[in-house]
Design goal:
Helix content is 32%, strand content 16%. It has 312 residues and is an alpha/beta fold. It is elongated. One of its GO terms (cellular component) is cytosol. Belongs to the D-isomer specific 2-hydroxyacid dehydrogenase family.
Length: 312
């Protein structure tokens, strides 16, 4: 019987789906748990489902001789050694769009928290009076960096609520309700800026001090994508210089000192990489990953491939 290795547990209906398809499966805590794998089982695994974003240990690729696919349980694949996988004729896949609604709603929630200044107006005792004045979303310009599934869904939500939506994307995209602009213009005219772009060599730390200096409206900046798009220290400097009014993060870089400073500020809210953690999203991502594994085992190619293999 074909066997699948889960790097991180999946929701019950997903595990039932694996069994219904006729596969056995084992579960490891995460993608860094290779040492816990029984060497006698190395040859049994044909597919891996990687749930979380920690880097996938390369030994899963080099030591499992019959491995055919690493299926990401989500959209991002920057934690998978894709070049090594391709060299070993191992497919890499993702589940585009499966978490779009969840992440878009989370970004919207962060934006509203900061726009309405809930942090300052949170009641600590009965009869506390409001001390801060918030703002309305209607009529604001919302700039979206990245026009993928999540960015577009966030744009739709913002547009329905009365915002003027503009977006930046590295390639040309069409939209019936949003205007594509360059990155400098987006930072110059936006009241709210939300990052929805993957990390690549071209986009790593793309949000720089110089880019933030283009802001003219003290925008709110939201990042629910990847921490390596903007350094904590850059955000901190933007806040200290009054170039940004507030920051909402679901992800951040690894500089703990600057993160601690951000966490201490009243105009910053940080959630713990929970944007995609809804019951609906977890099920959709897991089922999508399972379908990719099943497609490779049965038909030789995943439904949502990230890499290209030279297989005769």
């Amino acid at each position: 019987m074909n066997k699948i290795l889960l790097l991180g547990d999946l929701v019950p209906q997903a595990k039932q789906k694996i069994s219904d398809l006729g596969y056995e499966f084992d579960i490891l805590p995460n993608a860094q748990s290779f040492e816990q794998l029984d060497p006698q089982e190395f040859s049994a695994y044909e597919g891996i489902i990687a749930r979380n974003i920690e880097p996938v240990d390369p030994r899963f690729i080099t030591k499992l001789p019959n491995l055919k696919i690493i299926a990401r349980n989500g959209a991002g694949t920057d934690n998978v050694p894709i070049e090594l996988a391709t060299e070993r004729n191992v497919w890499v896949s993702n589940t585009p769009g499966a978490n779009a609604q969840a992440v878009a709603e989370h970004a919207l929630s962060l934006a509203f928290y900061l726009l309405k200044d809930f942090g300052s107006n949170r009641m600590s005792k009965k009869n506390d009076l409001a001390t801060a004045v918030g703002a309305e979303l209607r009529g604001k310009t919302v700039g979206i960096v990245g026009w993928g599934f999540i960015g577009k869904r966030f744009a739709e939500l913002m547009s329905v609520l009365g915002a003027n939506v503009i977006f930046y994307n590295r390639s040309k995209r069409e939209s019936s309700f949003a205007k594509q602009v360059n990155l400098n213009e987006l930072f110059s005219v936006s009241d709210i800026i939300s990052l929805h772009i993957p990390v690549t060599p071209d986009t790593k730390y793309m949000i720089t001090d110089d880019l933030i200096k283009n802001t003219k409206k003290q925008p709110i900046l939201i990042n629910t994508s990847r921490g390596e798009l903007v350094k904590n220290a850059v955000l901190l400097k933007g806040l200290q210089q009054g170039l940004l009014s507030s920051v909402g993060l679901d992800i951040y870089d690894n500089d703990e000192a600057s993160l601690e400073k951000l966490l201490s500020l009243p105009n910053v809210i940080v959630t713990n990489h929970s944007a995609a953690l809804t019951a609906e999203s977890l099920a959709a991502m897991a089922l999508g990953a399972i379908n990719n594994v099943d497609a490779v085992i049965k038909n030789g190619k995943p439904l949502n491939p990230i890499n290209t293999l030279n297989i005769n």
